[in-house]
Amino acid sequence: MVGCVRKGGQFCPEQKKQPIMKTLLYAALALLSSCIPPHAHVHPDSDSPKKGIVSGRVVDTSGKPLANADIVVNNSQFYNNNILGKTDANGHYSLSVNAGSWYVRGTVTVRFDNKTYVLDLFPETTGAFAGTEGAIRNLRWKLTGEKPKEFGMSGHYGGSLDVYGAIGEFFDTDNVEFTFKPVGTLIDGSTGKTLTVKTGDENAKDIPLGKYTVTARYLPTNQPMLLRQRNANQSYKNSVTASFDPTYPGATGSYQLTLEVKLP
């Protein structure tokens, strides 16, 4: 600004302020940028609920984001009054809710062994919340464990074993022990382990979903048994290789393996 130059080559006060202010601004920006790691994304505080909004994150069995999971926000007072949504690529969801009492449930659909499984997700927080207050509700995929006994949920996240004796030949099914040996990975892609399951025990209700080769023995005599899948038009063999099916036609979130056994 030539009009501001005084005699002797001195600048007027307005010109002195301009380079000083720029220097301070650049220094502040440099300090701020040094506090943020490269490629970091700054997200809103996910621990603070927003009024009229329910949001959260869904992860798989290893803690990684679970995309495309189905979210259902149910009204705890009125039947079939719900809000539907899905998680994004980072496992997040955010849904608007009206006044009232609400709770959140979720499912994940998985294709395994040429079958489609719709699996219930575990809610980290089970209680209802007020729509006017909003809430954070996170969920995760579990292979085993008892489901919360709240708002209609029951059972286990794993599959169950149902056993019948051969008609007219064997009746003592309470004293049969089964060995489940995984074939390939489990339904979530993880490595399973060989399990020993006794009919009627709690572990027979919560077997990680997967494909197994199953053998059986009669405990009182330590005798190997013959077995087959029930109602599958099979002959009895020393072992059965199979995955779990819905507990009844059209069921979701509940799967079982039904076997028949007999002595050789």
From TrEMBL:
The keyword Protease belongs to this UniProt entry's keyword annotation: yes
SUPFAM superfamilies recorded: Carboxypeptidase regulatory domain-like
GO molecular function, one term: carboxypeptidase activity
Annotated protein name in UniProt: Carboxypeptidase regulatory-like domain-containing protein
Entry-linked Gene3D superfamilies: Carboxypeptidase-like, regulatory domain
Keywords, ordered alphabetically: Carboxypeptidase, Hydrolase, Protease, Signal
Signal peptide positions on this chain: 1-40
The organism of origin for this protein: Runella rosea
